């Protein structure tokens, strides 16, 4: 994965700072602590990849959870008709439960990525459980045909302590995002709002977070065609996250040549 080490990561924190941050979070109350844990800015050992520095209009759609049978094909149809590819962060147990869906996603050229095995919060999880959650999902994705480095994104973006340490030891970035139109700046239940937020927030190198597979997210599914069409009209190429990373590596190599 060329250029991975040179990308735009948030700085890591020292161990002592980590303890102080946790203590401060607890002191600030449960809500503050939850916000701290979910924050993409705080990660103690591993490195978070939110966006890559890209020299042109290129972005990645990242679709989390599943695969679930109810809406998978509908989502694939939207992407196929527009000839764009996305990165699917899939849950290992659902990958094992629905190999036919995983095969369909892969057959369309999308990237398969790891979103843990059980989608349990990885906060305060034992180190060996974290390793097992990630390895079982890697294995399931490899059996489904995914080759090369497998990208990882934690469920609920909980990233304190054990998980960043594991990722650091295994040399993997924590793939997050810089555009989350379903939830930021607040929950959106309207497809038009989700489209507008995406088109307003995207920048070259952006990673866009969406959950179209989840049963409850009809607004996201309704927004998906408008998101893709709008981004294409703005001149964006939509690529997989691994392609985005490779693109950034090439841009950097040209810049330093
Ligand atoms: Zn998830």
From TrEMBL:
One of its GO terms (molecular function) is hydrolase activity, acting on carbon-nitrogen (but not peptide) bonds. GO terms for biological process: carbohydrate metabolic process. InterPro entries: Glyco_hydro/deAcase_b/a-brl (IPR011330), NODB_dom (IPR002509), Polysacc_deacetylase_ArnD (IPR050248). The keyword Membrane applies. Signal peptide: none annotated. Keywords: Membrane, Transmembrane, Transmembrane helix. This is Peptidoglycan/xylan/chitin deacetylase (PgdA/CDA1 family). It comes from Actinoplanes teichomyceticus.
């Amino acid at each position: 994965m060329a250029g991975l080490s040179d990308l735009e990561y948030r700085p890591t924190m020292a161990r002592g700072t980590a303890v102080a941050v946790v203590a401060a979070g607890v002191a600030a109350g449960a809500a503050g602590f939850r916000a701290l844990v979910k924050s993409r800015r705080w990660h103690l050992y591993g490195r978070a990849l939110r966006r890559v520095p890209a020299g042109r209009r290129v972005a990645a759609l990242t679709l989390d959870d599943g695969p679930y049978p109810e809406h998978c094909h509908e989502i694939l149809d939207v992407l196929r008709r527009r000839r764009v590819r996305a990165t699917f962060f899939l849950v290992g147990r659902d990958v094992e439960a629905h190999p036919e869906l995983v095969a369909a996603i892969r057959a369309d050229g999308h990237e398969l990525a790891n979103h843990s095995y059980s989608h349990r919060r990885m906060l305060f999880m034992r180190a060996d459980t974290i390793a097992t959650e990630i390895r079982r999902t890697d294995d399931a994705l490899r059996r489904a045909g995914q080759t090369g480095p497998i990208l990882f994104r934690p469920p609920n973006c909980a990233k304190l302590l054990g998980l960043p340490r594991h990722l650091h030891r295994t040399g993997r970035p924590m793939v997050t995002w810089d555009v989350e139109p379903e939830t930021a700046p607040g929950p959106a239940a309207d497809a038009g709002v989700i489209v507008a937020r995406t088109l307003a927030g995207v920048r070259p190198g952006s990673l866009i977070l969406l959950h179209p597979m989840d049963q409850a997210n009809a607004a996201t599914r309704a927004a998906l065609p408008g998101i893709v069409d709008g981004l294409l009209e703005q001149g964006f190429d939509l690529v997989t996250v691994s392609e985005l990373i490779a693109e950034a590596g090439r841009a950097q190599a040209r810049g330093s040549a």
